[in-house]
Amino acid sequence: MGGSLLAPVSEAMATATEAALRRTKGTIHPGNFWLDITDLLNPKDFITMADKKKLSYKDWSLSSNITEIPDTHNCVYMSEALGYQWMVTSCTDKMNFVCYKAG
């Protein structure tokens, strides 16, 4: 299949992802989805895991104060309950994920 974990690099990509996830709302539990974004290499400096690039687009939840997150919270997910905005949590949490294949 050759897909990769999603890292929304633009508002258009995030909007398309949100639209696709809204169509599955209620069928996937819980409605949290891993993204290809982490700060494991440098705390509080979130990058994409696949290519180590800085984020050109961000959609942090207002309740996600990324300057005050615990050191054990290094991975980013989209939260259905928060309108598909991003939150940070421990990388060991179990949740759904979103993959894509370019092209």
UniProtKB/TrEMBL annotation:
SUPFAM superfamilies, A to Z: C-type lectin-like
Classification via Pfam families: Lectin_C
Transmembrane segments: none
Residue stretches making up the C-type lectin domain: 1-100
Organism superkingdom: Eukaryota
InterPro entries per record: C-type_lectin-like (IPR001304), C-type_lectin-like/link_sf (IPR016186), CTDL_fold (IPR016187)
Protein name: C-type lectin domain-containing protein
